[in-house]
Amino acid sequence: MDFARARTAMVDSQVRPNAVTDFDIIRIMGSVPRENFVPADLRELSYLDQHLPLSDSRRMLSPMRLAQLIQLADIKSSDIVLDVACGTGYAAAVIAGLAGSVVAIDDQDELVEAATEALADLDIGNVAVLSADLTQGVAKEAPFDVIFIEGVVETMSDDLKSQLAEGGRIVCVEPVDGVDVAVVYTKNDGDLARREAFNATVPKLSEFSRAPEFSL
């Protein structure tokens, strides 16, 4: 399979036509080999417009949706970014081209190992991949200018909120009246302002599920 040609087609048919106008995101997604982050048996599906399974509970976001969410984060070259539920590291690789540094976390050791190897193979040196509880973040590396969560968040943890820098952004997807919506939180004077941006169907992260409510 001609992956370079498929990559160009992905950018031209999935990313550009879906309101992704940030040239840096377009450029980086046109250069990072997504197939390097996809399990070997699924590699020929690398550039399809779909979420790809990485494990029983983790999915790689589709290229179009990932590009839209990264654009929403408005990442600057000086930003320190926390990438939550990083999987095999593809999003971290894209974000690394925009940010100053990235801390990418997952709670599945095999994915952490795969992400570390894939990023090292591409000589992407401004990403540290760590094994960590997704809801707890990495307090010792905080504060973060951007916290980017790769999946649906039913309830945001206080730990992650506390690790956001003043003026920083949290980007995630939340369920709103039965529809998944991309949301950006911005921290100003210690308070978080929430803004809904666009509908975005992405995989659910069980680690951020709301506790069941019981009633008599």
Summarize the structure.
Helix content is 26%, strand content 28%. By secondary structure, it is of the alpha/beta class.
What this model shows, in words?
InterPro entries: PCMT (IPR000682), SAM-dependent_MTases_sf (IPR029063). The chain is of the alpha/beta class. It is 26% helix and 28% strand. A hairpin with a 2-residue loop joins strand 8 and strand 9 (191-199). The protein is globular, with a radius of gyration of 16 Å. The N and C termini lie far apart (58 Å). The mean pLDDT is 95.
Structural class by helix and strand composition: alpha/beta
The CATH homologous superfamily is named Vaccinia Virus protein VP39
For the largest beta-sheet, the strand count, sense and barrel status come to:
7 strands, mixed
Query: How many DSSP H or I helices?
Result: 6
| Rg, Cα atoms, Å | 16 Å
Q: Spans of 5+ residues with little confidence (pLDDT < 50)?
A: none
- The level 1 CATH classification is Alpha Beta
Pattern of helices and strands:
HHEEHEHEHEEHEEE
User: Architecture, according to CATH?
Assistant: 3-Layer(aba) Sandwich
Strand content: 25-35%
Give the domain tally: 1
- Please estimate the helix content: 25-40%
Tell me the total number of β-strands.
Answer: 9
Mean pLDDT: 95
Kindly report the CATH topology. Answer: Rossmann fold
In order across it, which strands form the biggest sheet? 5-4-3-6-7-8-9
Silhouette: globular
Distance between the termini: 58 Å
